[in-house]
Amino acid sequence: MGRTVNLHFLVILALLSLSSQFFVTEASCKRQFKRFYHFKELAWGDENSWSDIDGDWIQDPEEKLSPCILVAISFFKGRVIAVGDEGFLSNVLIDEADNLKLGINIINWLAQARGNNYRILFDASHNELEDINSDDPWLGYSKFAEGLRELGYIVERNTRKIDWSTLHKYDVLVINAPNKRFLPSEIVAIVHFVLNGGGLFLIGEWHMSEHQHVSKTLNPLAAFFGIKFNEDTVCDLDDYWIEGPQYPIIHIFTDHPILKDVNEIYYYLGCSIEKR
What we know:
Elements: H1 2-19, H2 26-36, E1 37-44, E2 49-52, E3 68-75, E4 78-83, H3 99-112, E5 119-123, H4 142-150, E6 154-158, H5 164-167, E7 172-176, H6 184-195, E8 199-203, H7 214-222, E9 227-229, E10 233-236, E11 249-250, E12 252-253, E13 265-266, E14 273-275
Parallel strand pairs: 4-8, 5-6, 5-7, 7-8
Antiparallel strand pairs: 1-3, 1-12, 2-10, 3-4, 9-14, 11-13
């Protein structure tokens, strides 16, 4: 508890130091925060989908229907995208449906907040599930990285502790399914990065994987942007791309730039997301 309180205190201090003229009273703080923070749900499972908590792939009364799987946040000068499934951009699925299109759209939108200098950093320092240097069908993002490079992006891989001296060189930081907790100093650096116009792409994973602690590793960071990755698996009884409700086709979208020309995506053992 003490560590969390101290971390929140550090970020509050960062906010105050960056925008001290806005935070005069509690009421003023709330009003001003609404001006600089916007949370929007972008995609959901359909009416036959649910948030499976117990892993029986059967919709129980307490399990939420049509869960959200994709959100966008505007946070001061920066932007954040969160999606509950790292697998949809893996080498084996990236060319299916509109998965690649969505991935490219996300990076483009995030990078635009800083004017887009075409520099993307994929973190690999927290035992992330997918690796841009891997050609593994299910555990590699090499095709995604190559697709970005073909568009002119400089795509690099981070293996050291995250800090501002590293982040300020990039437009977008991508974090997928980490299985190692972020240090308080790393969270402060990432929040500072977004406050100053950086783009952050947070990617979760289903709750029964070998990376089953993803919600515990991602949520302490995601909480600062009002995001919660749930400990569940999004399922659909009727609309799936291979046999099994845990492989749903997502086709319910709202209007947003990252969803331009996106009609459906193949979701692979992913969790749901909600506003914290």
